[in-house]
Design goal:
Elements lengths: L8 H11 L4 E6 L3 E5 H18 L5 E5 L5 H12 L2 E5 L9 H10 L3 E4 L4 H9 L7 E4 L18 E7 L7 E6 H14 L7 E4 L6 H14 L2 E4 L2 H6 L2 H8 L4 E5 L1 H10 L2 H4 L7 E6 L6 H10 L10 E3 L1 E2 L6 E5 L7 E5 H5 L23 E5 L3 E2 L3 E5 L13 E6 L11 H7 E5 L2 E15 L2 E7 L4 E3 L2 E3 L1 H9 L5 E13 L2 E10 L8 H16 L5 E6 L13 H9 L7 H5 L5
Parallel strand pairs: 1-10, 3-4, 3-5, 5-6, 9-10, 9-11, 11-12, 12-13, 27-28
Antiparallel strand pairs: 1-2, 7-8, 14-15, 15-18, 16-17, 19-20, 20-22, 21-22, 22-23, 24-25, 26-27
Helix pairs in contact: 1-7, 2-3, 6-7, 10-12, 15-16
Length: 580
């Protein structure tokens, strides 16, 4: 290694192995409690890397089929030690269709598959089905023997392929380099002001970019303890997450919007007794756009347990930027900006007076006002708002596509040169890149990022722009039977032009549920607030809408299913008298 070469992820981890070998690095709080020290991680990763090297060449892809557990960090760092490219995914099971898993593994073309012994039968059966070319299967927790030293990779060499379904399209493998990993975890550490005394507590799947970076890579590279709760345990018992946070004086946790809503909905007031959230310093929210109603509901529900709304840290990021783009902000609650809804539809940011104070006296939406939540200032990155039609930086006060540049910007898409060239641009108005075209629409105000929607999801009717997330929020609030975060707003071509379609998940057991009444409520609310009447309002059972691995609805896939007539045949919907 050249003397002035910055240390990579393996070198940073092994530095902590030498300095604090007996310190606990990872704790797993699932059906069983377990922990892993720095020395134990290093020893197990070294042993597994020797087995990986016996079956692969440097640069080969190695799929990790592991959602949670201590086996995941062992497998991930074993891949880096072996000079292999990790491909984090989830194991197949009877409750989850393998269509996406099949396509991703075919695209990655791995030489090896890693999984834990408890998944051996399911993974072996899946591999033997012939859906993918059958690579060799190695068990992560099978004892092995260390051999040699870790491979020394260059900073610009791939460390992993992070497959993203995004909100649109088919999965694509984002090529994340060793330098990208180091750069982005440094940015995360700065944005969240983490120190060696901090503890990260989370339930996110470790194969997901947010879980991988914040719960696996960041702790190992900067000596921060990580406590992980199995996602399935969180879904069944969300109080367990808050119990773990209650035990710590400097707890830091990140979650998509769904996690906070799930706690409010599933932890009844009597069950909140005994929780102490005064030590919860950072409560990251990785959804975009951030839903102010969710922040309010959670803050109100857990005020009695000492939760401070100033702990909320809305953030913005995407896999193509490794994970985090922004999140740092001044002390205090997240900044809210009421803007004129009609002006925003025309691409103009016009601040307005908020409606009467809502929960905890915060601004709420009223009439023409739309309340947006800031996602912090860029974390040591350059963010520009670009006119998507001209490719030029737009003037202040205008909505445009967010372009990002920094050392965390990844190397493109695996084996997709045309898509890479279209998304990663070398120059922006004379500013050298590479620049990442995020596909997200937003603006900067006082240096802070505000996200308003996706460029490809934008609905244009009669010359006016309608952001799907805004319409979805209106529809969700139109009737109590509509599930939270269970709405897709999209558009279809009709004889009269582009028209709005709303797909909404409903709870048939909700008070006053009647299909006609729900549809009427949605049509009225959308027409009143957005000035457009839905062409169709389709009600489906809860969980019917397609989602990404982080729980966000997939609008374009939902649109395709609608056009294919899939929702009209939903048995649960037909049984309830719900359909087109």
């Amino acid at each position: 290694m050249v003397a002035d070469t910055p240390p990579g992820p393996v070198a940073l981890l092994r530095r902590h192995v030498r300095r604090m070998p007996g310190a606990t690095l990872y704790e797993y709080a699932g059906d069983r409690d377990d922990r892993l020290t720095f020395a134990e991680l290093d020893a197990r990763a070294m042993a597994l890397s020797a087995e990986i090297r016996r079956h692969t060449a440097v640069g080969d892809r190695v799929v990790i089929l592991q959602e949670s557990g201590l086996e995941f960090p062992v497998a991930f760092f074993a891949c880096l030690y072996a000079g292999a490219v990790a491909v984090p995914l989830y194991p197949p099971d009877a409750q989850r269709a393998t269509t996406r898993l099949d396509s991703v593994v075919r695209d990655a073309d791995p030489a090896l598959v890693l999984t834990a012994a408890r998944h051996r039968r399911a993974v072996r059966s899946w591999l033997d089905s012939g859906v993918v070319r059958s690579p060799r299967l190695v068990l992560i927790d099978e004892p092995g023997h260390a051999d040699g030293e870790p491979v020394v990779a260059r900073g610009d060499e791939p460390a992993l392929l992070q497959y993203t379904s995004g909100s649109t399209g088919d999965p694509a493998g984002v090529v994340v380099t060793h330098d990208n990993l180091v750069a982005n975890v440094r940015q995360i550490q700065h944005a969240y002001e983490l120190s060696s005394d901090s503890v990260l507590v989370n339930w996110l799947p470790l194969f997901h970019d947010m879980g991988l970076l914040t719960m696996v890579v960041l702790p190992a590279l900067f000596g921060i303890r990580s406590v992980h709760l199995a996602p399935a345990t969180f879904i069944r018992h969300p109080r367990r997450w808050l119990e773990l946070i209650s035990q710590l004086p400097d707890a830091n946790a990140m979650s998509p919007d769904f996690g906070y809503r799930h706690c409010v909905q599933r932890i009844a007031p009597p069950q909140r007794a005994g929780l102490d959230l005064r030590g919860w310093r950072i409560a990251g929210n990785g959804s975009e756009p951030v839903r102010p109603q969710t922040l309010d509901l959670f803050a109100e529900a857990f005020a009695g347990q000492g939760f401070d709304p100033a702990a909320f840290r809305p953030s913005y990021g995407l896999a193509e930027a490794t994970v985090l783009v922004s999140g740092f902000r001044a002390p205090g609650p997240p900044r809210r900006l009421p803007v004129d809804r009609a002006a925003l539809g025309l691409g103009e940011v016009r601040a307005v007076e908020p409606g009467p104070g809502g929960v905890l006296g915060r601004p709420v939406e009223s009439g023409p006002a739309l309340v947006l939540v800031g996602c912090g200032v860029p974390a040591e990155q350059d963010v520009q708002v670009v006119d998507p039609d001209t490719g030029k930086v737009g003037p202040p006060g205008r909505v445009g596509e967010l372009w990002v540049s920094g050392p965390n910007i990844t190397a493109g898409y695996f084996r997709r040169p045309e898509r890479t060239a279209a998304t990663f641009v070398p120059d922006l108005d004379g500013r050298p890149g590479p620049w990442l075209r995020t596909g997200d629409l937003g603006f900067l105000d006082q240096g802070e990022i505000f996200v308003v929607g996706r460029l490809k999801d934008l609905i244009i009717i009669d010359g006016r722009n309608h952001h799907p997330a805004d319409v979805e929020q209106t529809a969700e609030q139109a009737h109590p039977a509509i599930a939270a975060a269970g709405v897709v707003a999209t558009s279809v071509d009709t004889a009269e032009g582009e028209a709005l379609v709303v797909l909404a998940e409903v709870d048939r057991r909700a008070p006053g549920f009647a299909p006609a009444a729900v549809r009427t409520a949605v049509r009225r609310a959308v027409a009143d607030r957005h000035g457009v009447s839905p062409h169709d309002v389709v009600l489906v059972r809860r969980g019917a809408l397609p989602r990404t691995t982080s729980g966000k609805v997939q609008r374009r896939r939902g649109r395709r299913l609608y056009l294919d007539g899939a929702f009209a045949d939903d048995p649960a919907a037909v049984e309830a008298g719900v359909g087109n």
